What we know:
The chain is mainly alpha-helical. It has 2 helices and 2 strands; from the N terminus they run E-H-E-H. It has a two-stranded parallel sheet. The protein is elongated, with a radius of gyration of 14 Å. The chain starts with a strand and ends with a helix.
Amino acid sequence: NMDGAIVCTPHSTHFNIGKELIAEGKRRYEEAMQKQSNGGSGEEQDYRPINVLMEKPMTTNVREAKELHDLLMHRRAVEEQ
Protein backbone atom coordinates (compact mmCIF):
# COMPACT_ATOMS: atom_id res chain seq x y z
CA ASN A 1 0.00 0.00 0.00
CA MET A 2 1.17 3.48 -0.77
CA ASP A 3 0.21 6.71 0.92
CA GLY A 4 1.39 9.06 -1.79
CA ALA A 5 3.00 9.45 -5.18
CA ILE A 6 5.41 11.96 -6.64
CA VAL A 7 5.03 12.21 -10.40
CA CYS A 8 8.30 13.47 -11.85
CA THR A 9 8.36 11.59 -15.12
CA PRO A 10 8.41 12.88 -18.70
CA HIS A 11 5.55 15.35 -19.16
CA SER A 12 3.90 13.18 -21.78
CA THR A 13 3.29 10.48 -19.14
CA HIS A 14 1.62 12.70 -16.50
CA PHE A 15 -1.91 12.31 -17.88
CA ASN A 16 -1.94 8.49 -17.87
CA ILE A 17 -0.21 8.26 -14.49
CA GLY A 18 -2.69 10.80 -13.06
CA LYS A 19 -5.64 8.80 -14.38
CA GLU A 20 -4.23 5.60 -12.84
CA LEU A 21 -3.73 7.28 -9.46
CA ILE A 22 -7.29 8.67 -9.49
CA ALA A 23 -8.62 5.21 -10.42
CA GLU A 24 -6.63 3.63 -7.58
CA GLY A 25 -8.03 6.17 -5.12
CA LYS A 26 -11.55 5.39 -6.35
CA ARG A 27 -10.89 1.65 -6.01
CA ARG A 28 -9.68 2.11 -2.42
CA TYR A 29 -12.73 4.18 -1.56
CA GLU A 30 -15.17 1.69 -3.07
CA GLU A 31 -13.40 -1.18 -1.31
CA ALA A 32 -13.69 0.60 2.06
CA MET A 33 -17.38 1.35 1.48
CA GLN A 34 -18.01 -2.27 0.47
CA LYS A 35 -16.28 -3.44 3.64
CA GLN A 36 -18.40 -1.05 5.69
CA SER A 37 -21.65 -2.21 4.06
CA ASN A 38 -20.69 -5.83 4.75
CA GLY A 39 -20.46 -5.18 8.47
CA GLY A 40 -16.80 -4.20 8.58
CA SER A 41 -15.41 -1.69 10.99
CA GLY A 42 -16.46 1.20 8.76
CA GLU A 43 -13.87 3.39 10.40
CA GLU A 44 -12.25 6.23 8.52
CA GLN A 45 -8.84 4.53 8.62
CA ASP A 46 -10.25 1.85 6.29
CA TYR A 47 -10.02 4.43 3.50
CA ARG A 48 -6.57 5.83 2.78
CA PRO A 49 -6.49 8.37 -0.04
CA ILE A 50 -3.42 8.74 -2.21
CA ASN A 51 -1.73 12.12 -1.90
CA VAL A 52 -0.20 13.14 -5.22
CA LEU A 53 2.48 15.69 -6.00
CA MET A 54 2.73 16.16 -9.75
CA GLU A 55 5.43 18.36 -11.21
CA LYS A 56 4.56 21.06 -13.71
CA PRO A 57 3.16 20.94 -16.28
CA MET A 58 0.34 18.74 -15.04
CA THR A 59 -0.36 17.60 -18.61
CA THR A 60 0.75 18.59 -22.09
CA ASN A 61 -2.59 20.11 -23.09
CA VAL A 62 -5.67 21.71 -21.58
CA ARG A 63 -8.05 18.88 -22.57
CA GLU A 64 -6.05 16.33 -20.55
CA ALA A 65 -5.76 18.69 -17.57
CA LYS A 66 -9.54 19.27 -17.60
CA GLU A 67 -10.20 15.54 -17.82
CA LEU A 68 -7.99 14.87 -14.77
CA HIS A 69 -9.71 17.69 -12.91
CA ASP A 70 -13.18 16.42 -13.81
CA LEU A 71 -12.29 12.84 -12.79
CA LEU A 72 -11.00 14.03 -9.45
CA MET A 73 -13.97 16.32 -8.76
CA HIS A 74 -16.41 13.52 -9.63
CA ARG A 75 -14.61 11.17 -7.26
CA ARG A 76 -14.68 13.73 -4.47
CA ALA A 77 -18.40 14.35 -5.01
CA VAL A 78 -19.05 10.61 -4.64
CA GLU A 79 -16.97 10.48 -1.43
CA GLU A 80 -18.92 13.35 0.11
CA GLN A 81 -22.31 11.66 -0.36
